[in-house]
Design goal:
single chain, about 150 residues, mainly alpha
């Protein structure tokens, strides 16, 4: 249930980004907070995550991060006029954290043999649907996720 809520939440937020700057401007402080809280704030916090949880916990975590990155992408595409030096600086922190996690991903995936195959298709679904609102994405079980606006 939490996995589906995470996916649905980020899909909805990604769709809101397509409404443009007038709508997003008032929501931007909350969005920056959501983006910041979706990723570890430091390398030390990232290191401590390695020992955290089981495969499902990692799947939910990765879904949240994929959704956050997708919404950031949608924000950059649909609201470029809201981008300033401060916003850019605040967006770089989660992006740097995502890149740092990619470097450390291999040992985590090996320690949880099933996580590599479980999270990748779902992360791609969230990423694709949130980045391209209006596009329905077929899942492995032949259901669809649509981020139409």
């Amino acid at each position: 249930m939490s996995l589906h809520r995470t996916q649905a939440g980020w899909l909805l937020i990604g769709a809101i980004m397509t409404l443009g700057s007038p709508v997003v401007k008032g929501l931007l402080p909350r969005m920056l907070l959501l983006w910041r809280n979706s990723f570890p704030r430091s390398n030390k916090e990232l290191e401590s995550e390695k020992a955290r949880g089981d495969a499902f916990t990692w799947q939910v975590t990765l879904e949240g991060r994929a959704g956050a990155l997708s919404v950031m992408h949608s924000f950059l595409l649909n609201c470029p006029d809201l981008l300033n030096e401060d916003i850019t600086r605040r967006l770089l922190t989660p992006i740097e954290s995502a890149l740092a996690m990619l470097v450390k991903w291999s040992p985590i995936a090996k320690s949880m043999a099933s996580i590599g195959t479980q999270s990748t298709p779902d992360a791609a679904k969230v990423s694709t649907a949130a980045a391209r609102p209006g596009v329905a994405v077929a899942t492995e079980d032949r259901s669809e996720i649509s981020a139409g606006v």
